[in-house]
Amino acid sequence: MYAPSAVTQFTYKFNKENNTDIEKESVEFLDGSPFVTIDFKNTSVELMLEYTYELAGIQEYLGIKRESLLPLKDYPFPPEQK
């Protein structure tokens, strides 16, 4: 993953739009590169494929642009859990 924070943003928006409960479980660094673990829970195969396809495109775009966040007005972060 190029931008783990963007995974959080995208996942939040995707969950709201598709009534899913996908979670970014953890971020580990392997050989200096971030690796994100995703829990798809009870998400249908079709939505898992849509999610991964869209996320791959986002990560590629952010890598080319050297950005680490998506536009906040379009992809807000989830509210903080208390």
Write up what this structure looks like.
It is a single chain. With 82 residues, the protein is of the alpha+beta class. The protein has one domain (4-65). 44% of the residues lie in helices and 18% in strands. The chain contains two helices and two strands. Strands 1-2 form a two-stranded antiparallel sheet. It starts with a helix and ends in a 17-residue tail after the last helix. The model has no long low-confidence stretch (mean pLDDT 93).
Main sheet summary: 2 strands, antiparallel
Oligomer: single chain
Strand order of the largest sheet: 1-2
Helix content: 40-55%
Separate helix tally: 2
SS-based structural class?
alpha+beta
SS elements, strand count: 2
Mean pLDDT, nearest integer?
Answer: 93
Principal-axes geometry comes out as globular
As a whole number of angstroms, the C-alpha radius of gyration is 12 Å
Low-confidence stretches: none
* Distance, first to last CA: 28 Å
**Tally of individual domains:** 1
